[in-house]
Input
Amino acid sequence: MKKILFAAFVGILFVGSGAIAEAYGVLNEKVVRLDQSRVLYVMTFEFGFLNAETYMPMSTFRTDRSGNASTSIQYSLVGDDGTVFEESIARAVVVSSTTVRRDEFFSPYGKKATYTLLTLVDMPRTTGESVRVKIESIPLTIVRKNSVRESMFLSGEELRGFETSALPL
Output
């Protein structure tokens, strides 16, 4: 009983302090070989905040990890050894059934939305190297109940696990 009361107290303290309580993570991922040179990577993830509205971009951008901030969800193709794999053509799109506002995906207070990153990779030649898709960064805008808009930029450790399985190309 003491553990339950302590957990409830900590939860009230955290949420009541004005901190942003977030919930996000990868729900599902799969890789489908379409033919000899094309592979479809599918990653479904959820995102939402307990005490803020969330706006997420609808656009994607393939990055070389140069660190440039973007208004798009940045992804890369990563090889076995963790290096960025550039010997391919890749196109990606993010889809969601959530509401669209101001040309961005919108999640209201306390609600999580589900998003799917679809990445089609076309290899000019077979390399045999295993490659996976990794989300490198997600720029967000959150709006708290006081109507203050805050820009956030999630990357690195915050997005650990935001990647698909690897498949030899």
